[in-house]
Amino acid sequence: MSLLVHLAECWVDLEDYACWSHECQFSAHQMQKTIDSIEAYVAVRKFKYVKVFKKNSPFRLPEP
Fold first, then answer.
1. Residues with Cβ < 8 Å from 47, sequence gap 6 or more?
2. Domain range summary for the chain, segments of one domain joined by +
3. Which of 1, 19, 32, 59 has the fewest Cβ atoms nearer than 10 Å?
4. What is the largest CA-CA distance in the chain?
């Protein structure tokens, strides 16, 4: 199964979209560790945001 999504480059854009689209509450998030980084995936309806944090760097998601 494949899922087509639009990648959001800006966290604020995704946050605004999530607040605006309250009639459809589909959302998901996932954290994945790799050898040298941690990847954060956030999906809201058809939009997806991906952020990669290198190990030994400050790990912070943007504040709501």
1. 5, 6, 7, 8, 14, 17
2. 6-54
3. 1
4. 39
